[in-house]
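Researcher: Structure for this, please.
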Amino acid sequence: MLPRPLSRSRLALFGTLVAIGVGQALAAITIGLLVQRGFDTLVTGTAPITASAALPIGGGLAVAVLLAATLRGVERFAAERLGQHYVLEVRETLFKHLTRVRHRVVGPEHAGLLLWTLSYRNSWSMIFHSDNNLVLHTAVLGLSPSADSLSVDAVLAHGRLDPQLRDWRYGLPSRLINAVTTATYFVAGVAKLKGPLGWSWATGESLRSQIAADGLRKELLGSSAAPLGLRLYGQTGLFRLLAVGSLVIELAAPLALLDRRLGRAWAVGAFGLHWGILALMGIKFRHQLSGVIFASFFPVDRLPARGSSA
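Model: Predicted structure, token format:
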């Protein structure tokens, strides 16, 4: 059973958020009234504008705006603290389940909680599309019999790890993960073509501008741009080649489902794409850079057997 969102330990934070909301509403009403008063007095009024008339309005507006900004900052802090407190309690509950409940229960629970956690995380910042594959892969593994071989479940059911299980149904999750992976890349490619540039995206100018803007943003915010991206900025032909290569990998992704060797070649290309993004932009897609996302395209299930035969 999941913990209650408004438990006794979180009521104080929730009350703080309610009070902040009331304060923000009052500040907004005050700002509106002061703006109306200033307009009536200083713009449409017939009396001459004097310091005694303008200073109270200007000072009141400054105080109200400062109060609204302060409450906004406190609201973000309190809401983040409330959410993190709940997430921590959910994780503790999940850990307790892991120690006494089998995969058929823990798998779906973990998949649902990961979706909730990452959705909550993205709601406070930009949408991290790189999380999509991680969530979808976890859902496939959580809802399929993926713990029948190397797990505590296997020991409880068969008395040992890695029992020799042979059934076509065990191949379905791997194929489904392949389909999910290629679908997300294909959608990314279609999104590029559906944008304002269309097929002109393949010229590389948009990619080149994006790398420049990303590097400038990092420098302005105190981070550092990727040196290789800055060094290659003038190589327009190279960026055209990279843009075409990116579109080929993304739009040709569904073809990886037709043949195993073609799928492995595509996985290697997509893996290299993310390492290229890291080199040119310094952006770390950890799931993709680790190669785990592409493991289903390779016969990793044969590794335990090879290790035992060696």
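Researcher: Any notable elements?
Model: The two ends are 45 Å apart (CA to CA). The chain has a mean pLDDT of 83.
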